[in-house]
UniProtKB/TrEMBL annotation:
It is found in: Secreted. It comes from Astyanax mexicanus. The lineage of its organism: Eukaryota, Metazoa, Chordata, Craniata, Vertebrata. Keywords: Secreted, Signal. This is C1q domain-containing protein. Its main location: secreted. Residues 51-180 form the C1q domain.
């Protein structure tokens, strides 16, 4: 009958309208999700970049392998580690021998000292001009080595350096480079 046909046709129109509305809502939700994902990806990239910028790693030796004595001096002298292997973050200055913390964090330092033949080998790792730890060795004959390490909580601008103590010395060559 014609009444049934009209009802069927009306039902079809309503059904199509509801499907279109659901599709539109679904498309909008998908668009929102894509925008959220894009924002999240951008935030992740920003965090990665910030994390990369905050990385601080350096390793250096007093020389590039040539034989050299450092000391004895009449006063404590800052050692300048001129041969830089790595300096991510550029926090170590190979001209002054001073490391300056660019961000607040825990930094781990290792020091090595090498010497020989009846001389004291003494170096002092200092934070903001104050002794924190050192490496010392003495032996009547032949070579002698000493090492030490420390983890320090540094604030932005704190400085760390290694000094050879007054009247002491260290030796450097390509067999046993003294490095930080």
């Amino acid at each position: 009958s014609s009444a049934q046909a009209v009802n069927h046709s009306t039902l079809e129109v309503r059904f199509e309208t509801e499907v279109d509305e659901l599709k539109t809502k679904s498309d909008e939700s998908l668009k929102d999700l894509k925008n959220s994902l894009k924002i999240t990806e951008n935030n992740v990239e920003i965090l990665k970049k910030e994390n990369q910028e905050r990385k601080v790693v350096f390793s250096a030796s007093l020389s590039g392998g040539e034989w050299a004595n450092h000391g004895p001096y009449s006063t404590d002298v800052t050692l300048v580690y001129k041969h830089v292997f790595i300096n991510i973050g550029n926090a170590y200055n190979p001209v002054t021998g001073i490391f300056t913390a660019p961000v607040r964090g825990v930094y781990k330092f290792k020091i090595y000292a090498h010497g020989y033949s009846g001389r004291g080998v003494t170096v002092s790792l200092q934070k903001n001009g104050h002794h924190v730890t050192g490496a010392y060795a003495y032996q009547d004959q032949h070579v002698v080595n000493s090492s030490n390490g420390v983890s320090l909580l540094l604030e932005v601008g704190d400085v760390v350096c290694v000094k050879v103590k007054a009247n002491e010395w260290i030796f450097d060559n390509w067999f046993s480079p003294h490095h930080l």
